Amino acid sequence: ETGVTQTPRHLVMGMTNKKSLKCEQHLGHNAMYWYKQSAKKPLELMFVYNFKEQTENNSVPSRFSPECPNSSHLFLHLHTLQPEDSALYLCASSPSPKLNNSPLHFGNGTRLTVT
Amino acid sequence: AQSVTQPDIHITVSEGASLELRCNYSYGATPYLFWYVQSPGQGLQLLLKYFSGDTLVQGIKGFEAEFKRSQSSFNLRKPSVHWSDAAEYFCAVGAGGNKLVFGAGTILRVKS
């Protein structure tokens, strides 16, 4: 149990579907993140939320829409995705927005396949 | 811009042998450095971190890493590898605020 729970673990969706990824952290942290992990590429930071406010959008296409209703929950809404969006999507949290004293804690990820 | 290079995509070592995984970074200020490990189907787990002070840091599972400013390196070491250490290892540099820049990873295979 990592303290950061992601659902679903696996998702297959067509390019016209709408789906959502969910992340929940039970650690009392104040910052939450979405990362994309594609094969043979470094992890890419997508979004950062601090105290429910979005502080980072790393030039992510609008077909990815994050939502952070409170400090414990983070969603990634997906619509009209492309096959190249197939990847492992990792959620993470940290106690504070400053990494010098609060490293990231990761969930186990959602394996997304776009057909 | 900050960057992290892990020169070895794959490394194979025998069980019981020593291990060193290389990491070089590019960052203008004093970096915050991390090593994470990812087992198949899992998220990333923090092994160790360097923020300041002693340049040799100890982590979990018997791993250690040494920060060498002159070489811009933060190599990960373990004196005796176990079969359960087979995984993918990621080096990362804190790039200000709460941004982490990751390397591409090194896949460790352990042969018995």
Question: What does this entry look like structurally?
Answer:
The complex is a heterodimer of chains A (115) and B (112). Chain A is 0% helix and 56% strand. Chain A is mainly β. In chain A, the strands form two sheets. In chain A, strands 2, 4, 5, 6, 9, 10 and 11 form a seven-stranded mixed sheet that branches. A four-stranded antiparallel sheet of chain A has the order 1-3-8-7, with no helix packed on it. Chain A is globular and about 40 Å long. With 112 residues, chain B is mainly beta. Helix content of chain B is 0%, strand content 53%. Chain B has no helices and twelve strands. Chain B has strands spanning 3-5, 10-14, 19-21, 24-26, 32-38, 44-50, 56-58, 64-68, 73-78, 87-94, 100-102, 106-111. The termini of chain B are far apart. The A-B interface holds A 2, 4, 6, 31, 33, 40-43, 45, 48, 50, 55-56, 90, 92, 94, 96-101, 103-109 and B 4, 32, 34, 36, 41-46, 49, 51, 90, 94, 97-105.
Please describe the topology of this protein:
The complex is a heterodimer of chains A (115) and B (112).
Chain A: E1 4-7, E2 10-13, E3 18-25, E4 31-37, E5 44-50, E6 53-57, E7 64-70, E8 73-79, E9 87-94, E10 105-106, E11 110-114
Chain B: E1 3-5, E2 10-14, E3 19-21, E4 24-26, E5 32-38, E6 44-50, E7 56-58, E8 64-68, E9 73-78, E10 87-94, E11 100-102, E12 106-111
Parallel strand pairs in B: 2-12
Antiparallel strand pairs in B: 1-4, 3-9, 5-6, 5-10, 7-8, 8-9, 10-11, 10-12
What's the quick description here?
The complex is a heterodimer of chains A (115) and B (112). Chain A is 0% helix and 56% strand.
In DSSP terms (H or I, runs of 4 or more residues), the helix count of chain A works out at: 0
The class by helix and strand makeup of chain A works out as mainly beta
Strand content of chain A: over 45%
Percentage of β-strand residues of chain B: over 45%
Mean pLDDT of chain A: 92
Largest beta-sheet characterization of chain A: 7 strands, mixed
Rg estimate of chain B, integer Å: 13 Å
The biggest chain-chain interface is: A-B, 30 and 23 residues
The rounded Rg of chain A comes to 13 Å
Category from helices, strands and their pairing of chain B: mainly beta
- Span between termini of chain A: 31 Å
Task: Enumerate the spans of chain B where pLDDT stays under 50 for 5 or more consecutive residues.
Answer: none
Order of helices and strands of chain B: EEEEEEEEEEEE
Largest sheet of chain B: 6 strands, mixed
Overall 3D form of chain A: globular
What coarse outline of chain B follows from CA principal-axis ratios? globular
Helix percent band of chain B: under 10%
